[in-house]
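User: Cyclochlorotine biosynthesis protein O, Trichoderma breve:
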Amino acid sequence: MAFEYQHLEASLASEKLSRLSSDSTSTLQAIDDLDYLSDNTELGYKISIRESASGWIKSKWPWVAHAALLIISCGMLASTLILRSSTLLLVRQISAWSPADISVQYDHVRYNLTTKGNPFVGAGPEVDRVWREISYDMGDQWISKSDLWKLDMPETSLKTNHPTTGEEGYRVGMEVFHHLHCLNLLRRVTYKQYYEPLGGEFAHGPEALQAHTDHCIEVLRQNIQCNADIGLFTFYMIPDDPLAWPELNSKHVCRNFDNVRKWALDHSVGNMEVLED
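Assistant: Predicted structure for Cyclochlorotine biosynthesis protein O:
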C-alpha cells in the first residue's frame, strides 16, 4: 500500500513536471512568437515609412524640380541685374552723363590690325559704304527737355520734334560718330587723288579742307588724351632686323559698338548739314 502511494506521488510529480515543461515551452514559444511579430511589425512599419516617403518623393518630384529651376532662374536674373546695375554705375562714374548709357555693354576684344583684306582700308565705293555705316547713317538723335537739363546744355539749343510721338525735344549728335566722321575725313585726305575729283569737302578749296582737317585732328587728339588708354603691348624681334617690333594685336575691354549704334538708330531724327567749327 505504501509502495502504491509513493508510486502515485511519483506519477503525479512526473505529470506536474511534464506540464510545467510543456507550459514553459509554450511560454517560450509565445515569447518567440511575440518577438517575431514585433520584429516583423517594426520591419513592416519601416517598410511602410520608406514606401510612403518614396511615394511622396515621386508625387512631389515635378514640383521639387520646378522649384529648383525657379530658384536657379531667379538667381541668374538677380546676378544679371546686379551686373547690369554695376556696369551702369561704372559707366556713369567714368563718363559724362548720356541717355545712351543704358546701351553700354563691355566686351573683351583682341585688336586685329591687319590691313590686308580690311574693308575699312583704301578708297572706293565699298570702302565708303562701310565707313558710312559706322559714322553717318545713324543721323542725329532726339532727346527730351529733361535730358538736356541733365546734360547741362543751354535751352537755346536746336529744338526738334520726336519723329514718332511729336514730343518737342532737342536735336543732338553722338560724339563717337563725330570722331569716326573725322577719322573718315583723314582717310579720304590720304587718298586725295581718288576723292578730289568727287568734290565733297575737296570742293570748297584747299584752305577750307585744311581747316576741316586741322579741326578733326584736334578733336581726335583731345579724345585720345581724354580716354588715355593704359593698355600695354609687348615687342618682338625679327631675324636679321636689329629693331624691335611692337605687338599691337593686344587685348582691350571695349564698349559694344553695335549696341551703341542701335541706340542711335532707335533715336534718330535723320541727318542735316551742319557747319564744322
